[in-house]
Design brief:
Length: 574
């Protein structure tokens, strides 16, 4: 027989166990885990709200069955035990479900959901999640991409005839003047009385306010509305404007001041395989078009000069020199889903591409990496200031890198360093000794070209995102290219969600205007922390990309040597 104190202990233990099991079974919706199903833009970014009538995804845990359950038409409000309820403007509405699995649910936000601040709960297995907040807006468009992550080539087809509209890829380009069909979600609500859970008829939605940009040019939009094939799915039929061409031509949709995610298309004068100065030669693209693969090698020397807003030890700028080498095998599948085809993350000439997310470095990296090729334990570099070693990146086959010097700052503070950095004018050699299992030994050389001069650098102190931004330069390699880079985070935390843009132009042009449709896609810069003497976070950079020089090595089909040099200064975005 139990004594009374023991009975209390056991009763409390049983209660605690029951509560623990209930919490373990309760569905969990991730903080910030309610996203547009096409763009995956963070809710903290300008385009990250959820539009009435759109398809959205919910990330979390214990929200559905262990294996995916997909719905048919009409879409149900409960699927495999999962249901989603949204509360906004004093109304609670059930969402039609597209699919459900433990970690992810896709649903349609009812068209009659009031705009404004809203909350959402997910129920599964007799348990309901804690409510998560999100924003409901009339429209916030997202374009589907082939990598299903909201970046790179878009889910866009070339309209050849009523019965033929193949997917646009670098191997099947569009022609200027041709009609293309873009697929996404978030144009807005269906007309009153039209159910959200069935395949809606083709109906224009918010078409008068839809702007679509191909490169920096606005395209004619022939139709913007529901695709008559799937609930919540939108399509935009547009005409490729003249004057744009390349393998990575950015495409974005603007509704008011809200910009979609950026995707890309390929455009060529005659269609077929595309051509781009910073992309692969057409002969190699032809090989990919025939189903083959291409083994590539790229080695580059890079300088980033960071202007200090407040001089440190009398030093106004920090030079960071680095060397990089990458060896990989590109297949048609990897080509069609990769975020960027050009060197140095570049888009096609005269265009800009926008990246968003939480990258760890100064520049965003392509999330799709082809199979790496082993080129040995290291790449040896030798230049006017001596020998350096590009070391293999841990756990990444075929990738080699090294910080060569961080000049200026190290000298006065640490009593050493080189104020000019490692990369000075002269000749540089690369070799990999006897090589690796995929790429055998090679030895090649490269001469650094002259840098350009950003002439309106001092005058550029603030960027008004709605007005566009003009950059001017002189000098540089006349056969080279200019890259313009911008960055702004949503707050001052080191792991903040960030927006980046990268624009590419020929050096000989001398000027470039970054359009509002690019700048509005990144967040305004946050104010400096209270009491701080630092300016608001945000950066603008202008630099050069050299013409590529080919090199050969046993085990690769095409090798390139190049260099980049960029000056980056603190500039807030308003």
């Amino acid at each position: 027989m139990y004594h009374e104190p023991m009975q209390r202990v056991l009763s409390c233990a049983a209660l605690a166990l029951g509560l623990s099991l209930a919490l373990e079974a309760q569905p969990l919706v991730d903080e910030g885990g309610i996203l547009n199903a096409a763009s995956y833009l963070s809710p903290r970014l300008p385009g990250g709200a959820i539009a009435q009538g759109s398809i959205f995804v919910i990330f979390g845990d214990r929200m559905g069955p262990a294996t995916l359950a997909a719905a048919g038409f009409p879409l149900p409000n409960t699927l495999a035990g999962t249901s989603v309820r949204v509360t906004s403007g004093g109304q609670s509405l059930d969402c039609p479900l597209v699919y459900t699995v433990a970690s992810q649910v896709a649903a349609i936000l009812p068209s009659n959901t009031p705009v404004g601040s809203a909350t959402l709960t997910v129920s599964f297995g007799g348990q309901t999640s804690a409510a998560r907040s999100f924003r409901v807006v009339a429209s916030a468009f997202g374009t589907f991409s082939l990598n299903l992550g909201g970046t790179g080539p878009g889910v866009i087809t070339n309209f050849e005839s009523a019965t033929s509209h193949p997917l646009n890829t670098a191997l099947q380009s569009a022609r200027p003047g041709q009609t293309l069909i873009l697929y996404g979600t978030g144009l807005g609500a269906l007309p009153a009385g039209t159910p959200d859970n069935g395949a809606a008829p083709a109906v224009q939605i918010n078409a008068a306010n839809v702007e679509l940009y191909v490169g920096s040019r606005r395209a004619n939009v022939a139709y913007a509305g529901r695709a008559p094939t799937f609930a919540g799915l939108d399509q935009i039929n547009f005409v490729v404007p003249g004057g744009v061409e390349g393998c990575s031509v950015p495409v974005a949709v603007k509704i008011g001041d809200i910009i979609s995610n950026y995707v890309s298309i390929a455009v060529a004068a005659a269609g077929g395989v595309c051509s781009d100065p910073l992309s692969l030669p057409s002969s190699l693209l032809d090989r990919l078009n025939s189903g083959g693969s291409v083994r590539l090698g790229n080695m580059s020397l890079s300088r980033v000069e960071l202007e200090n807003s407040v001089p440190v030890a009398g030093i106004q700028a920090l030079k960071i020199d680095s060397g990089n080498a990458d060896f990989s095998e590109l297949t048609p599948a990897a080509l069609n889903s990769g975020a960027q085809l050009g060197l140095a993350g570049s888009s096609s000439m005269g265009t800009c591409y926008v990246f968003v997310g939480n990258p760890s470095g100064l520049f965003p990296a392509d999330p799709i990496r082809p199979r790496g090729l082993d080129a040995g334990t290291a790449i040896n570099l030798n230049g006017p200031k001596g020998a350096r070693t590009l070391r293999r990146a841990p756990g990444v086959t075929g990738s080699y890198n090294e910080t060569l010097t961080t000049g200026d700052l190290l000298g006065p503070i640490l009593g050493g360093g080189d104020p000019d950095g490692y990369l000075v004018a002269g000749n540089y050699t690369f070799n990999n000794g006897t090589g690796g299992t995929d790429v055998r030994g090679f030895n090649t050389s490269y001469t650094l070209p002259p840098n350009l001069n950003w002439t309106n650098r001092a005058a550029t102190t603030t960027v008004n995102r709605a007005n566009g931004l003009t950059v001017n330069w002189t000098g540089g390699d006349p056969n080279g290219y200019v890259q313009i880079y911008g960055f702004s985070p949503v707050d001052n935390n080191d792991n903040s969600v960030r927006g980046y843009f990268v624009c590419t132009e020929r050096t000989s042009v001398g000027t470039f205007t970054v359009p509002p449709a690019v700048l509005l896609a990144i967040p305004p810069s946050p104010p400096a922390p209270t009491g701080s003497s630092l300016p608001p976070r945000g950066s603008l950079g202008v630099g050069s990309i050299s013409p590529t020089r080919e090199f050969s090595a046993p085990g690769i089909d095409y090798g390139t040597l190049s260099s980049t040099s960029m000056v980056i200064k603190p500039v807030p975005y308003q």
